[in-house]
Amino acid sequence: MPTWDMLLVNGHVATMRAESPDPYGTIRDGCVAVRDGRIAWVGRRVDLPPGEAVERVDMRGGWVTPGLIDCHTHLVFGGDRIREFEQRLLGATYEELARAGGGILSTVRATRAASRDELLAGARARLADLSAAGVTTVEIKSGYGLDVDTELRMLDVGRALGEATGLRVVTTLLGAHALPPEYASRREAYVDLICQEMIPRAAEESLADAVDAFLEEIAFTADECDRVFDAAASMGLPVRLHADQRTDGGGAALAARHGARSADHLEYTSEAGVEALAAAGTVAVLLPGAAYFLRDARVPPVEAFRRHGVPMAVATDLNPGSSPLRSPLMAMNMACTLFRLTPAEALAGMTRTAARVLGLENRVGVVEESFGADLAVWDISHPAALSYWMGGNPCRFVVRVGTLVPGGR
Ligand code: DI6
Ligand code: FE
Questions:
Q1: Domain-by-domain residue ranges, the chain?
Q2: At 122, is the pLDDT very low, low, confident or very high (cuts 50, 70, 90)?
Q3: Which one of 8, 132, 174, 386 counts the least CB within 10 Å of its CB?
Q4: In angstroms, rounded to a whole number, what is the distance separating the alpha carbons of residues 210 and 43?
C-alpha cells in the first residue's frame, strides 16, 4: 500500500508556522506529503522518510504555501454597483449615495429580487477567481437580504457554494448591515427581528458559523450592536464587527468587550481601541480594497497593532459597493503598499491569522503535520513575490483537502 496519496517535490515550502526562525517558516528544497486529506509529513527533501506516493506533484522550483484564506467577503449578492461607481467619479460620496437609498440598499433590492440560482451563479463566478488565485477557504456574509427569508437564503447559498466547489466555506450572518426601508422609522423592531428571529433560526438551522454587525453612523449604534452580540452569544455563535471604518465609533473596544473573533476595517481606531483588542485577543482584519476603492486616506494603526501584539489578518472584503476586489493577491499588495505591512505579514494575514478569525487555527493556515492538506503551489522565486506583483496570477495548483485542482496559470 502506498505511504502517501500525494507528494509535492522539487520546490520550497513557506510553512507560515508562527515559531519559525524566519517569518515564512521557510524550508528550502522541501517536500510535503499528503494522506487522507491531511498533511502527513513536511520537511527537507534530504530528510524525507522512505515511502511511495500515488501522485507526485512537481513544483518545478516554485513554492508551496498554505492555501489562502479570505476571511471577510460579501461574495453573495444580486446585481452590481457600477452605476454608483460612475456617480462617485462625478462627485457623489459613498455616504450620500447610501443616505439617498442607494448604497447597500440598492444591492438589497437586487438581492431580494434574485432567485437562489441567480445568486449561486453570480457568486460562483467570483469564487472561481479567488480559487484560481490560491484561495482554499472563504468566509461569506449575508447582509443584503435584511429580512429573515433572504438572509437565510444568502447563507444557504454560501453553504451550497462550499458543496458545489469543494472550497471550505464559513458563513456569517450580517443581518445588522443596514436598516431595511420597511423598518425606516422602527429601528428597534428591526433589531428585535435580528435578535429574536434571524439569529435563532440561523443557529438552529446550522446556516451561520458566526454573527457580524456594522457599527457606523450610516448603519447601527453601539447599543444596537451590543444587543445583536448578546443574542449571538445566547445561541453560542462567535461574533465579529465592522468597526471604525469611516468614523471612530469605539468599535474596537466594543468588539473586545464581547470577546469578538475579529474587528474589521479599523481605519479610525484609537490607541485605546488597539489596547482593548490586544487584551481581548481579538484579531484586526485589514481590508485595504475598501480603503482604496473609497479613496479613504486614513490608514489603520498598523504600528500600534504591532506594538501591542494585535494579530493582523488581510482580506478582500469582496462586495459590490466598497470593494469589488476579486484578487487575494491584490489585497496583499494593497496591504503592503497602502497600509505598510511587510509581505510576510500580508501572507500570514491571508493564511495563519485568517484561520484564527474563522476558528480554524488548529485545522488550516499553516503547513504542518496533521493539518488539513489545503495548499497553494506558486510559480514564484520568493514568497514576497505574492505581494509584489500587481495583477497576473502565479498560482499553478491548489490542493483542497488533499485533492489537486488547477490554479490560474
Ligand atoms: N462595510 C463595507 O465596506 C461593506 N459593508 C460594510 O459593512 C460595504 C457593503 C456595500 O457597500 O455594499
Ligand atoms: Fe465588509
A1: 3-66+366-406, 68-357
A2: very high
A3: 132
A4: 35
Q: What element of type H or E holds 289?
A: helix 288-293
Residues within 5 Å of ion ligand 2 by Cβ?
Answer: 317
Residue 317 pLDDT > 80: yes
Lining ligand 1 with CB less than 6 A are: 74, 103-104, 107, 177, 214, 242, 245, 290, 317, 319-323
C-alpha cell recorded at residue 108: 438589497
CA 389, 393, 397, 398 torsion-angle sign: positive
Task: Note the pLDDT tens digit of each residue in 253-286.
Answer: 999 999 999 999 999 999 999 999 999 999 999 9
What is the spatial distance between Cα 258 and Cα 278, in angstroms, rounded to a whole number?
A: 13
Q: How far is the CA of 55 from the centre of ligand 2 (A)?
A: 39
Residue carrying the nine cell digits 513557506 = 14
pLDDT digits (tens, 9 = 90+) for 162-196: 999 999 999 999 999 999 999 999 999 999 999 99
Contact 127, 138 (CB under 8 A): yes
DSSP 163-178: HHH--EEEEEEEEETS
Q: Please write the tens of the pLDDT for every residue from 69-79.
A: 999 999 999 99
CA distances for 216 relative to 152, 195, 246, 294, angstroms: 24, 19, 7, 15
Output phi, psi for 172, to 5 deg.
-135, 130
By CB neighbour count within 10 A (0-12 exposed, 13-18 middle, 19+ buried), where does 217 fall? exposed
Find the largest Cα–Cα distance for the chain: 70
What distance in angstroms lies between residue 47's CA and the mean position of ligand 1's atoms?
48
* pLDDT at position 1: 74
User: Containing H/E element for 357?
Assistant: helix 352-357
CATH class in words for 3-66+366-406: mainly beta
Q: What average pLDDT does the segment 59-71 reach? A: 98
